[in-house]
């Protein structure tokens, strides 16, 4: 049986704030601690001056590696193992796959990156979309 073994990947490192209906993301060629550090810097820059953000995340190795550098205005809050239902970001990924990224074929790596960027930009541009997907009744958010 013949199979096409050619493939390239791009990864969206993204975080959202449902209270402010905002998100910050980078599209990276690899999933590793260096990419995570760059993502945390991007989130840190997106946090309102004088504010502090709590980043809820799963236990992926690159999220909690010993060489992850957490900016002073962020705190990482790891979730218990095997609890994706507690991570609202999982719903964001599902929305992006279902509406922008699934069942597509790309001719070049640049097309993959463009599709990821376009999907994220469409998400953050639609007023109320992040809030509607990522809000949780049990997680009080105050945007004041």
Could you please describe the fold and organization of this structure?
This protein has a two-stranded antiparallel sheet with strand order 1-2. The protein has helices at residues 33-46, 61-64, 89-101, 109-125, 129-134, and strands spanning 11-17, 22-28, 53-57, 74-78. Helices cover 38% and strands 17% of the residues. It is an alpha+beta fold and 144 residues long. The model has no long low-confidence stretch (mean pLDDT 89). It has one domain (11-134): Nucleotidyltransferase, domain 5 (2-Layer Sandwich). The protein is built from 5 helices and 4 strands. The termini are far apart.
Strand content is 15-25%
Instruction: Bin the helical content.
Output: 25-40%
Q: Nearest-angstrom radius of gyration? A: 16 Å
**Average pLDDT taken over every residue:** 89
Helices, by number, come to: 5
Order of strands across the widest beta sheet? 1-2
N-to-C SSE string, H for helix and E for strand: EEHEHEHHH
Count of discrete structural domains: 1
């Amino acid at each position: 049986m013949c199979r096409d073994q050619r493939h390239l990947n791009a990864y969206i490192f993204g975080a959202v704030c449902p209270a402010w209906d905002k998100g910050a993301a980078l599209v990276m060629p690899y999933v590793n601690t260096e990419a995570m550090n760059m993502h945390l810097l991007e989130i840190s820059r997106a946090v309102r001056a004088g504010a502090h953000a709590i980043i809820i995340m799963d236990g992926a190795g690159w999220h909690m590696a010993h060489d992850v550098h957490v900016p002073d205005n962020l705190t990482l809050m790891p979730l218990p193992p095997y609890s994706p239902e507690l991570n609202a970001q999982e719903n964001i990924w599902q929305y992006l796959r279902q509406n922008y990224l699934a069942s597509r074929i790309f001719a070049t790596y640049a097309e993959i990156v463009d599709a990821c960027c376009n999907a994220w930009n469409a998400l953050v541009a639609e007023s109320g979309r992040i809030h509607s997907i990522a809000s949780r009744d049990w997680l009080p958010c105050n945007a004041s």
